[in-house]
Amino acid sequence: MTRRKRFHRLCRRMFLSVRGRATVVTVVVSGLILALVFVLMLLLARDALRNQTEDTARRTAERAAFDLLDGERAADALAPRRDEAPLIQVVGPDGRVLAATRPAADRPPLGKRAVRRGELLVHGQNCHPAREGCVRYFGMRLRTTRWGGDVTVIAAEPVPLLGRIWPLPLFLALLLLGLLGLIGWWTWRTIGQAFVPVDQIRLGMAEFSIRGLAHRVPVPHTGGEIQYLAETVNRTLERLDEAMSRERRFISDASHDLRNPIAGLRTRLEFALDDDDPDECRETLRACLRDTERLNDIVIDLLELSRLDSRAPVPLERVDLADLARREAERRTSATPIATRLESGVVVEANPIRLARVVGNLLGNAERHAADRIEVTVARDGDEAVLRVADDGSGVPEDARERVFERFARLADSRRRDPQGTGLGLPIAREIAEIHGGSLRIVDAPAGAPGGANFEMRLPIAAPASVR
Question: How far is CA 162 from CA 86, 91, 102, 315, in A?
Fold first, then answer.
């Protein structure tokens, strides 16, 4: 890899990746904050030096004034001691320098204006253009001295510049730069460690082509968003695996149910071609027609399931559930009588064709298993419409109440009573009920109902029609 490519890769990683951008932003913000801290620390250092300088000048002036009051000689009183300010002046009330140490002799009077105003204490800062730097001074007015009255003794200490004490700013700068580097490294490392589980999830996702949907990504036990992401991915994979398993079973069962009538139809047609008896040929053709009708029923159910799975929108209407159940019950031609208990005014918002198919499938299932009686009930239960279809057959075992709603699933009793069934009627009915916001399940028979299977569909009651 050339240097240019490595450089571009590094730039992309630093400025385009989440890790790089977060590190850059953190370093920039931290740099601004640390720069402000650096300036504040320099200002504090400057103020500390000024305060120390002024304190030295004050102590020197106080000592010199007390020595003069005690009657010491001027030369001894004005001679600076160790750790004292080197500049000492005695300024008269007119602002003239009466005496001074050698370093202060060629300087103009310090605090000249304050002295002329007669202030007892003078202090401030003086910067001489002809000399480097500035001095902080402090002075006291004395009533009686060898120079007369109202004389001010002033001591001054040069204010050291930060440039002259360069180790301090250099140390602060190096310290803050090191801290900034530590912040950048820690941010890069922490975010990198945070993204390790994400890389593991990515690698796990990349292995699906090899291991299949049964593979699961590792779940980091961090208790945060990344753990929730991994758990969500695994739940999604689990649903996809279940969907693929259902699809494989669906294709297998559909192929099996379609292969039988097709094979029978082909065999009968081959016999019909070899048979010269017109009556036998006509009977064979009738059998072929029955197989064709069964094939048509299977194809219609498969197409309906495909439309239901796609959730294609269908027009909805306000449907009186009692009227619809009454019409479907009157259409049945079975010898088993159908008793109805229908509460009027139970209105739902649904597609009438699909809802009629649900009722028809439930009635057809009841006719196959009923012994002497079928009962259809429509009632209102709070904000739900309830449709029940019950028969007095052998019923459905409790452990098989959910299995009958699986596609192509048929119990032994159902296969015995209707060998030509597809096992798609009840799954289609439940799918339609759930699409309309309801449910379909097998419940225990209430008091007074037949003792066989009791199918209950619940749908939301439609909102009242708006008055125009």
Answer: 20, 31, 26, 84
> In 316-424, where does DSSP find H-type helix?
321-331, 352-369, 412-417
* Average pLDDT in the chain: 79
Residues contacting residue 50 through CB under 8 Å, at least 6 positions apart: 136, 159
Give the phi and the psi of residue 348 in degrees, each rounded to 5: -125, 160
Helix and strand numbers (H, E) in the chain are: 14, 12
Alpha helix (H) residue ranges in 195-334:
196-206, 208-211, 225-274, 278-310, 321-331
Nearest to 424 by CA among 404, 402, 401, 407: 407
Amino acid at 197: P
Instruction: Pick the closest to residue 398 from 448, 458, 451, 442 (CA basis).
Output: 442
Consecutive 10-residue runs of the chain (468 residues): their mean pLDDT? 61 64 85 87 81 87 84 75 84 87 83 86 79 80 83 86 65 85 86 74 67 68 70 78 71 67 74 70 76 75 72 84 91 84 91 91 87 90 92 84 79 65 80 91 77 89 70
- Whether 154 and 48 have beta carbons less than 8 Å apart is answered as no
**pTM of structure:** 0.49
Q: Is the dihedral of CA 104, 109, 114, 119 positive or negative?
A: positive
pLDDT at 424: 79
Provide the residue type at 86 as one letter.
P
Q: Rounded to an integer, what distance in angstroms lies between the CA atom of residue 212 and that of residue 222? A: 27
Measured CA to CA in angstroms, residue 19 lies from 33, 184, 188, 194 at distances of 21, 11, 7, 10
**Hey, what amino acid is at 76?**
D
* Nearest-angstrom CA–CA distance, 289 and 49: 111
* CA–CA gap between residue 60 and residue 86 (Å, rounded): 9
- Rg over alpha carbons for the chain, rounded to the nearest Å, is 51
Distances (CA, A) of 127 to 50, 92, 138, 142, 159: 14, 21, 14, 25, 10
3-state DSSP call for residue 26? helix
Taking the C-alpha atoms of residue 427 and residue 326, their distance in angstroms, rounded to an integer, is 23
The full set of domains in the chain, from first to last, is 3-46+166-198 (no CATH), 56-158 (3.30.450.20), 225-309 (1.10.287.130), 314-460 (3.30.565.10)
Q: Report CA-CA distances (Å) from 177 to 20, 224, 300.
A: 19, 33, 76
